[in-house]
Amino acid sequence: MAERNEIMFGKLVYSCAFEKYRGNEEFIPEHFLGFQLSGETHAFHAQGHTIITENTIVLVRKNQLVRTIKYPGKSGKYQFVSISLDKETLHQYAIENKIVVDTPFPGNQKLFFEPDDFLRSYFLSLTPYINKTKEATPKLAILKIREAVELLLQCNPAFKNLLFDFSEPYKIDLEEFMHQNYMFNIPVASFARLTGRSVSTFKRDFDKLFGMTPKRWLLDRRLEEAHYLVKHKQQKPAEFYLDLGFENLSHFYFAFKQKFGVTTSEV
Question: Of the residues 18, 139, 190, 217, which has the fewest C-beta atoms closer than 10 A?
């Protein structure tokens, strides 16, 4: 059975699976708070690999790329519930509570932790919506988001510097970013946004830096990594083609032969 994602109300999402499930690339536009009810989530991102174990809370930063593999637990079931902390609600909360960001939140700060009694009870309070025994009005949905914010700040007051930083993404080092994220199969517009650029500026800066279009560079970079994995790691394309951003094996084999003049078995 494939993964089942359900939106319980505007910002609450419940994910369930009964076998190992590989998710697609996801662009995370808003912070979200999640709870691993059962099983494990293996998340791959620019900073590396994170394993979210059962009974763990995770606060996920906005404006990043993530790819996940979902593993059922001993019960044979994978369950993850998350609630988005949208910018509009956070902004209103900051105004009402006169919150000011006084220092940048550390970029390497781990954002997953054991739930305290309050956070555990909070996610249990969402069960009626997951089981569909209760429906949430728009007003109640906003209250549940604000409750999550209150509990996060109670857990770690420094989270205010993450949640209430409304500054726009600034121009970041394009070369470093692309080498860290080339394996994510997302539109050019998403790459542009994540580097703090408009699409036109992104393409212009990209051409100055790499001397080719983003599409051409991404294909070449992925194929170079594939060549390395085949030649030096003796890996088979079926083992890694999805990890490198290729949508199917036939496209990968065609592109590989076109670039290197040989098949993977001839390398």
Answer: 139
